[in-house]
Amino acid sequence: MRGKFITLEGIDGAGKSTHLDWLAQFLARRGIKVKVTREPGGTALGEKLRELMLHGNVRLHPETEALLMFAARREHLEKVIVPALENGAWVLCDRFTDATYAYQSGGSGVAWDKIAVLEQWVQHELQPDLTVLFDVSPEVGRQRGKRGKTADRFEREEKAYFRRVRQAYLRRAKEYPDRVHVIDANSSVSTVQKRLEDIFTSYCSITS
Ligand code: TYD
Which atom of ligand 1 is nearest to 69's Cα? Predict the structure, then answer.
């Protein structure tokens, strides 16, 4: 049976990475084969792009960023995501296309419709089966993001930028109410995990 395509989203500092590890273990305990991957990243090209975009010292035009994201996404779908799904694994992807709407369109001003053209071009009808949006205020995100690491290109943006990113994520959630589950991630890790557990316990029982 084809696996499920799960994506995790949220502004920087929302706590995605912590919850992704927890979720991978939760699913593995239920006997589900899990493939964890991320964007930008997941393939040789994607990881190079990640390095260039996040830590390189060239500032790219936002439309160039969007184009590169989708070029890498094409590769990621072909080489990693689709084969894993066909192999019956559940793919847990740390960010996907909702992030391009949120960051390149919401944050950096690329036309929403241009992202939609690229989405259609690269994905056709393919959408994640389920997306969790960890929703935090930019203030909370910034506080959490600061801990112990050097800020990358996006993390250095202003609060107003993250406000726009967050609004664009919420717009996507409104457009796809069945797919996108919004979790208030301002609360404690254990409260968020309880919500995740509820969502996935019911999702696993519907799909098995
Ligand atoms: P992130 O996932 O937060 O990784 P880490 O936890 O290691 O910091 O970083 C990825 C960054 O890439 C994030 O700031 C958002 C950005 N991004 C885009 O701008 N557009 C995209 O389409 C994707 C997938 C990510």
Answer: 22
Check pocket membership of 92 for ligand 1, CB cut-off 6 A: no
Which pTM was predicted? 0.95
Element (H, E) at 34: strand 34-38
Compute, in angstroms, the gap from residue 99 CA to the centroid of ligand 1.
7
In sequence order, the β-bridge partners of residue 183 are 134
Q: Is the CB of 100 under 6 A from ligand 1?
A: yes
In sequence order, the 6+-apart residues with CB closer than 8 A to the CB of 153 are 53, 54, 55, 56, 59
pLDDT in tens, 172-202: 999 999 999 999 999 899 999 999 999 999 9
Which ligand 1 atom sits closest to the C-alpha of 155?
14
Distance of CA 66 to the CA centre of its chain: 15
Structure-token pair, residue 142: 């910034």
Contact 73, 97 (CB under 8 A): yes
Q: Which domains does the chain have, with CATH numbers?
A: 5-207 (3.40.50.300)
Cα dihedral value 126, 130, 133, 134, nearest 10 = -140
| DSSP 3-state of 36 | strand
Angle between helices 112-123 and 62-76 (to 10 degrees): 20
